[in-house]
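In response to reviewer comment 3 from the previous cycle, which asked for concrete evidence that the modeling workflow produces usable outputs, we include below a single protein chain processed end to end. The sequence was submitted unchanged, and the resulting structure tokens are shown without manual editing.
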Amino acid sequence: MSGKEKNKLSVKELIQAGGFGAIYLVVYFALAMLLGFNPITFFVTGPIAAVVLGTVYMLYIAKVPKRGAIFILSIFNGFLLSTNFVYAFFIVIALGLIAELIAGSGKYKSITRNILSFGVFSCASISVYVGILFTRDQYLETAMQYYGAHYTEVLGGILSLGNVVLLLVADFVAGIIGAYIGKKLLKKHFERAGIV
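The workflow returned the following structure tokens.
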């Protein structure tokens, strides 16, 4: 098998990518639903999800260590996160490509680069709040109808450019923590796969 063929995703790996994408979406969506009822926990859904999903991401890279796998996952993530703001999809895809390049630079075998890759990948949740900032008044008006005045007032107080930048940092750090936890939980699996 040539080097090019080795790097290509097989049908089995594409199916695995789809399966992991579905798991990632279901867990993220469940967390978003659970945390969305409180404006403060809603705002920190991204970092919390990053800690929880780090293990899924690290297992995914171990199972499908091929170019394009992370990009496929970012497409799944993009569809989930761009429901309210279409440009969020492009933010998610751009971060997915950067994450792909970082993991790929270590041939998907470097634990350090894979962890760093998930730190960047986790920043994708920022796209939701960038979208909200762009449509702030409309979003808060909708929130008022669904959640009431108190929720909207607290959320409106949190939503600022400065806090969104802080959230971006929190997403990255939480991604590193989540991936590190994943590394610890999956240590034996990584050793069998020859990932160092």
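Residues 78 and 90 are 8 Å apart (CA to CA). We consider this sufficient to address the reviewer's concern, and the full set will be provided in the supplementary archive.
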